[in-house]
Design a protein that fits this description.
Layout (H helix, E strand, L loop, with lengths): L2 H4 E12 L6 E12 L3 E5 L6 H8 L7 E6 L2 E2 L5 H11 E4 L11 H11 L6 H11 L14 H13 L5 E5 L7 H16 L5 E4 L3 H4 L4 E6 L2 E7 L3 H17 L1
Helix pairs in contact: 4-6, 6-7
The structure holds adenosine-5'-triphosphate (ATP).
Organism: Streptomyces sindenensis
GO molecular function, one term: ATP binding
Pfam families: ABC_tran
Length: about 250
């Protein structure tokens, strides 16, 4: 396998500026990052360090000021809006803090909606595997209001997985959940990487959530400043403390 095929997404010398003149903010200041296929990557860092901006740029939801973004072998930076929409539909899955489910649709209809919009159908085997992994078989005909927060987030996870995207981006996926439901969702994300071979990038503030990842990338002030492999909640907490010290010294 070539290196190219093992990389699900890549940022090369990415800079992102917001605003102009005195009000200009450099949210990303030269970020180089590779997301390896079949890995669970967490992005951490202090508030305002650029985590969401980096994720939005990687996912083609925001445009970089300079540098390049690739998803699979496609260059995202410079893509037309039409091609970006197509890319987001077919190659990227999203999980948001607020679940973003449609209230009038059942769990199953919500899960299948992105594929329906793209005019595609999942293979029956894959759909069954995803539902099985998420543990939703008994809940497919329920509407979001009839589900707990954790179940709603698992529906959102299944929706992201069902199209077999190159990469799933999760923005604080456990931010609105109690700790038991949050743990369920994290175990599920972990499992979808281990047993379904999915690639996940997750932004989180929570060291115990980051400990479910294979790798944690730390941002500070728009730059990658540290990285941990096979993290534990303690090693992540320790790295965050060092970042705080670094920020205070700066
Ligand atoms: N649309 C925008 N316009 C202007 N500035 C922005 C915009 N979006 C983000 N920023 C600024 O860019 C910097 C990085 O923001 P970003 O939201 O990526 O940080 P973050 O690490 O995700 O923060 P948090 O943990 O608080 O969500 C911050 O200084 C922020 O104020």
């Amino acid at each position: 396998m070539t290196t190219e095929r093992q990389v699900a997404a890549r940022a090369v010398k990415v800079e992102k500026l917001y605003g102009e003149g005195e009000a200009q903010v450099a949210a990303l200041r030269g970020v180089d990052m590779e997301i390896t296929r079949g890995e669970f990557t967490a992005i951490m860092g202090p508030s305002g360090s650029g985590k969401s901006t980096l994720m939005h740029c990687l996912a083609g939801l925001d445009v970089v000021t300079s540098g390049e973004i690739f998803v699979g072998d496609q260059q995202v930076s410079g893509m037309s809006e039409k091609n970006l929409t197509q890319l987001r539909r077919s190659q990227i899955g999203f999980i948001f803090q607020q679940f973003n489910l449609l209230p009038t649709l059942t769990a199953e209809e919500n899960i299948l909606l992105p594929l329906a919009i793209a005019g595609r159908k999942p293979s029956k085997d894959w759909f069954d595997r995803v539902i099985d992994t998420v543990g939703l078989a008994q809940r497919l005909n329920h509407r979001p209001t009839e589900l707990s927060g954790g179940q709603q987030q698992r529906v959102a996870c299944a929706r992201a997985l069902v199209s077999q995207p190159d990469v799933i981006f999760a923005d604080e996926p456990t931010g609105n959940l109690d700790s038991t439901s949050g743990t369920d969702v994290l175990k599920f994300l972990r499992d979808s990487v281990r047993s379904l071979g999915q690639t996940i990038v997750m932004v989180t503030h929570d060291p115990s959530a980051a400990a479910y990842a294979d790798r944690v990338v730390f941002l500070a002030d728009g730059r990658i400043v540290n990285e941990l492999r096979d993290p534990t909640a303690d090693s992540v907490l320790d790295a965050m403390r060092k970042l705080d010290v670094r920020e205070r010294v700066a």
